[in-house]
Design brief:
The chain is of the alpha/beta class. The chain folds into two domains: 247 residues, Alpha-Beta Barrel (TIM Barrel); 69 residues, Type Iii Antifreeze Protein Isoform Hplc 12 (Alpha-Beta Complex). Helices cover 32% and strands 19% of the residues. The chain is built from ten helices and 16 strands. The chain has an eight-stranded parallel sheet with strand order 7-4-3-12-11-10-9-8. The chain is elongated.
Length: 341
Amino acid sequence: MNRELSFGHILIGERNPIVTIAEAACEHLGSLEVAKRMVEAAKEAGADIIKFQMHLPEEMIPNTIRFWGGSMDEILARYNLSSEAHQELIRHCEEVGIQYLCTPFCAAAADVLDGLGVQAFKTGSGEMTNLPMLRHIARKGKPMIVSTGMATIDEIEEMIMALRAEGAKFMLMHCTSAYPPRYDQINLRFIGNLMEKFDVTVGYSDHTPEIWAALGAVVVGAKVVEKHFTLDRALKGPDYHVSLEPQEFRTMVEAIRKLENSLGSSKTVYPEEEVVRRWAHHSVVSLRAISAGSRITPEMVGVKRPGWGVPPKHMEVFYGRIAKRDIPANSFLQWEDVEGD
């Protein structure tokens, strides 16, 4: 199965660089100008994608949801961006050179985004079991990035079957939907389990306030890393406590680039190592002066640096040989110094 996923200037796949997503969420505090500054800061920090959210309050039962940020109704009343603001953000992302992405939290929001011309959809973990909504999005024919927090393996399998029945192009995001999770709840090796079991590209959506789990996800095969992003935690947006500031995000991206360069699977002696090899390896040497005609015993030879002479694995071959010349102490032993085969 072809695991590559592409939209806009983004290409996700085994042979492509790891894609980083700055999750802006509602950290813009409802200000289009702040959201635009976040776009610019995310680009400068090295993010490939900046992701926003689209909530339609009328699609939720009023006064029922309280989360770490407070009342959902109150937060959306203060911080929700209009569809016109999202249209402006799409344009601004194009100007800045970063990919716009947005999470719809209901099918109607997905329709709004589709009308704005988005190139892909990112769905949250809360929508993973909303199969009618996911099928609705899949029928739009655009790539999907699907988060899997709070889900059982059976629910993930059911969702994958539903998307494949629709012919969807999609990838999964491993995720633990705690804000923040404990490190023993993250289970990064499950990324490999998802890839093997379902033959699908997998990324990692991280809700810790640090970068370490994101870097670990790269090592175990994640092809996308998503982190919450804020201009300044002092603004105390709803997700500030699990968000990275621009310099922290930049540090994460730089570390990811170094890590992905480090993930080769071959064993090669590089030219730079050859220089070290010559002095760091060892050679067979005389531990004491050996007179011509003497039979060489184990006490007479040993191994010492540097590695310019006969390799240590041949040391015992010298035992019992006859010295053809006087050999000073601390001399490299050579085959021409001794008699015998």
